[in-house]
């Protein structure tokens, strides 16, 4: 597996991250994008049945364990971190899931051209050389194949300040997405769509506990949906859901 210096740094960071027993402090904020995760899995549930599917940067396999229940024809998971892949394999054994895991470089995978109907991932593209990994996804997708990704945005100044103040919580090379990244996807793929999440739900996250049952959360997420109709407020979103098709 050929790796760049950046790949090696990412590999080391995620091996160390997945070797820790204590969760990252930042995990407490993820309830603010509960609706994003719901939409992500709903989309995949509707589309993965009888499909060849790749979890791109699968980590320890938490997403793939849900998606395998949607009856894909075949499902693969790749990650640069062997610690993550080993954990994912152990989890798959416990639930008797038929998942093919392997350590691989997402920027230059071992798969043949036109292999997958769907390539998806959560929080992976912003760790990679963006154009290079999008070219690779394009290569391994079949004609009319779909990409589906959850990614953080790099346009909220308050979130960006927090990122600068907590450098040890993230890899030094990560780059939350900005407009030029969306333009690259739009130019390369068709049916490009981006949906925005996590403004008021993040600002007021101390005011609710369980997003599933919280009226406060539901109200805030509806207000976010309205505000994100305006270009200005999209800049303050925390994360996005990206879908696109290969021509």
Features:
single chain; 247 residues; alpha/beta; Rossmann fold; 7-stranded mixed beta sheet; 10 helices; 20% strand
- Quick one: biggest sheet? 7 strands, mixed
Query: How much helix, percentage-wise, in residues?
Result: 40-55%
Named CATH topology: Rossmann fold
Radius of gyration: 18 Å
Give the CATH level 1 class: Alpha Beta
| Quaternary structure state of the chains depicted | single chain
Instruction: Please report the distance between the alpha carbons of the first and last residues.
Output: 29 Å
**Number of DSSP helices?**
10
Return the string of H and E elements: HHEHEHEEHEHHEHHHE
Trace the largest sheet across and list its strands. Answer: 3-2-1-4-5-7-6
What's the mean pLDDT score?
95
Query: Class by helix and strand content?
Result: alpha/beta
**CATH superfamily descriptor:** Vaccinia Virus protein VP39
- In total, how many domains does the architecture comprise? 1
Give the strand tally.
Answer: 7
Shape annotation: globular
Strand content range:
15-25%
Unreliable spans:
none
CATH architecture: 3-Layer(aba) Sandwich
